[in-house]
Amino acid sequence: MIESEGITENVKRWRTDVPARIVAALGLEHVMFEAADPDVFAWYVKNYGPEVNLFVDHSQIVQLECLRAGIWGTADLWGKVVTYKG
After folding, report:
1. Between 38-48 and 61-69, two packed helices, what is the crossing angle to 10 degrees?
2. Which regions in the chain score pLDDT beneath 50?
């Protein structure tokens, strides 16, 4: 579990290099990232795919799962999330 403090929370600019280094070292399937708000979890889905492990507030679960399914999103993600499994 990777805390968002210092990465996407309470920083002037997101430290996107930190998740990239963690994923490169451990593999995406072995980590979970805290995503404290919709902009953050949208960034993770956009950059690591709909199956990225995210810890979100319980009030945001529906929004996240709709984003993962491709039925919700902002203009930069709408219609761009693909969840096809062969």
Report:
1. 30
2. none
